[in-house]
Amino acid sequence: MDRRKEIARLIAGDLLGIKAVFLRPEEPFTWASGIKSPIYCDNRLTLTAPEVRSDVETSLAEVIREMFPDVEVLMGTATAGIAHAAITAHLMGLPMGYVRSGAKDHGRGNQIEGRLEPGQKVVVVEDLISTGGSCIDTVKVLRAAGADVLGVISIMTYGMKKGIDRMAEAEIEWTSLTNFDTVIEVAAEQDYISTDDIERLKAFRDNPSDESWIR
Fold first, then answer.
1. What is the Cα–Cα distance from 60 to 92, expressed in whole angstroms?
2. In Å, what is the CA distance from 169 to each residue of 136, 161, 163, 165?
3. What are phi and psi of 46, to 5 degrees?
4. Phi and psi for 144 in degrees, rounded to 5?
5. How many Å is the Cα radius of gyration of the chain?
6. Is 137 helix (H, G, I), strand (E, B) or coil?
7. Which residue in 108, 138, 161, 170 has the fewest CB atoms around it within 10 Å?
8. 103 falls in which pLDDT band (50, 70, 90)?
9. Would you tell me the crossing angle of helices 3-17 and 180-189 to the nearest 10 degrees?
10. Alpha-carbon distances of 186 from 8, 15, 62, 172, 205, rounded to whole Å
11. Under 8 Å CB-to-CB from 118, ≥6 apart: which residues?
């Protein structure tokens, strides 16, 4: 097994183990958009589980070193990516900062927090990529400030076509420690879901607005 698949399975098992990922194909969650979803992910729970947190942060550092060896600064997305960017930057001996969802309405009106010099090579740390919106907004702000954004790394991605297409259109290189397919594969092995559910869940991933996967 190659190292990246090993990491993907490790993190998938960790997220399932601490219930940061819930799978409920028979009782779907409803997202704010109204979409019915068989999965709910709350990666903030990794921060309260020290062993899982260690797996996540050391894996982020390992993959960043492999994919983006020239990185000079880590920038977290607000708010979920901030803690992960901080811990990973500490492990890597790098400076970090974060990008607010909007500029402050007081003080210096910063949207980027932390020192960032034009031309610095940046990797953005995100907790979850679904449609890619927050990542793309963050990258746009950093690019406008003169940063050389090498790419984005997340803990997990749903692997939705919309997100993949939007990231490609924005010319953003990205990767994730684990992904929807690996999570459901590990979940089936652990009898969290049945093997019969796998294709239904993949149908959701391919087209979340089509509810035909729901029995």
1. 10
2. 10, 12, 10, 6
3. -65, -25
4. -65, -30
5. 17
6. helix
7. 108
8. low
9. 70
10. 10, 11, 22, 28, 16
11. 145, 146, 147
Q: pLDDT averaged over the chain?
A: 94
Written as one letter, the residue type at 62 is E
- HSE-CB at 211 with a 13 A cutoff on CA atoms is 10
Alpha helices in the chain (DSSP H): 3-17, 50-67, 82-92, 133-144, 161-169, 180-189, 197-206
Choose among 113, 131, 167, 123: nearest CA to 148.
123
Q: How far apart are CA 210 and CA 28, in angstroms?
A: 13
How far apart (Å, rounded) are the C-alpha atoms in residues 99 and 193? Answer: 37
Structure tokens at 169: 């259109």
CB-side neighbour CA atoms (13 Å) of 47: 14
Q: Can you give the pLDDT at residue 101?
A: 81
Q: CA 76 from chain center: how many Å?
A: 11
